[in-house]
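sry for the spam today, last one i promise. struct tokens for design, 287 residues
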């Protein structure tokens, strides 16, 4: 597994040398854009609209636009110095909190941590402390030129870093348009909806969820690659109608959920050994 960062995690005076590895990977299928006429990949060039000429990488500088068309130029040396100043610091766990206190909207990306040379014992200590207390650590760390707020927790046997958004990066929910405030909900609809939730409730098994679109796209690519005939179309789901009778929709959903749920086999009645012995004794007495 590729190491993307090396550093030190600390809590109190305990320092743990660690390596960081990406815990997830993007499996989106990337499609190239080709010239329809000759099937050549399209080339993208950086151009200056003012000078009307192509611009090389060495002729590009970074800047911050503080007002419209007004910029502060930032040198690469200045940015690199700031980056190194932050990267040199140990990742210190600032606080310990409960995981359920953090809403999932804050979570961004996951990374695995493995102990670097000489860090196995301290790594195991932090892991055990987090598991026994049921707490997670809150820390700050530099990842790819950005200071990230992060959660440090245990996933199975590994310590995981979860980068989380700062509060000012989460948009205010009251800015979301057309959210009903307190709509009156009928008791009958609510009871049926809760019954439907109960009917569809199960244990979370991540393995059963698949990316159907990606699978179908790869099948199409393989078919075309092998010059096989492509069948266009197939079974498509009908678009839901927005104008519906809510109660009818709930009841129909409930009926379908009941039909699709696997039926559990009734348990066979078993006679205990104690019952068998008692019956045998009674037969002996009456004989």
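last one done:
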């Amino acid at each position: 597994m590729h190491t993307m960062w090396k550093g030190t995690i600390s809590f109190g005076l305990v320092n743990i040398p660690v390596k960081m590895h990406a815990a997830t990977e993007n499996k989106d299928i990337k499609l190239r854009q080709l010239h329809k006429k000759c099937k050549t990949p399209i080339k993208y060039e950086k151009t200056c609209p003012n000078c009307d000429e192509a611009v090389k990488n060495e002729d590009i500088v970074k800047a911050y636009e503080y007002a419209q068309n007004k910029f502060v130029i930032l040198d690469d040396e200045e940015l690199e110095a700031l980056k190194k100043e932050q990267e040199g610091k140990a990742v210190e766990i600032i606080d310990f909190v409960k995981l359920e206190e953090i809403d999932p909207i804050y979570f961004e990306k996951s990374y695995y941590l493995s102990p670097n040379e000489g860090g196995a014992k301290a790594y195991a200590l932090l892991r055990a402390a987090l598991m026994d207390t049921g707490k997670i650590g809150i820390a700050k760390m530099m990842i790819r030129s950005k200071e990230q707020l992060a959660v440090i927790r245990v996933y199975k046997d590994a310590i995981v870093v979860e980068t989380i958004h700062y509060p000012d990066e989460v948009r205010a929910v009251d800015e979301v348009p057309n959210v009903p405030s307190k709509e009156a909900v009928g008791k009958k609809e609510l009871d049926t909806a809760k019954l439907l939730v109960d009917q569809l409730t199960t244990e979370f098994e991540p393995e059963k969820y698949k990316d159907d679109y990606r699978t179908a796209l790869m099948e199409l690519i393989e078919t075309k690659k092998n010059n096989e005939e492509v069948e266009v179309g197939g079974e498509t789901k009908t678009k839901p109608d927005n104008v519906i009778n809510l109660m009818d929709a709930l009841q129909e959903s409930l009926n379908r959920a009941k039909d699709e749920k696997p039926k559990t086999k009734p348990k066979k009645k078993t006679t205990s050994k104690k019952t068998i012995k008692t019956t045998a004794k009674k037969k002996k007495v009456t004989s």
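The helical segments are 76-87, 120-133, 187-200, 212-225, 246-260, 273-286. ok im logging off now
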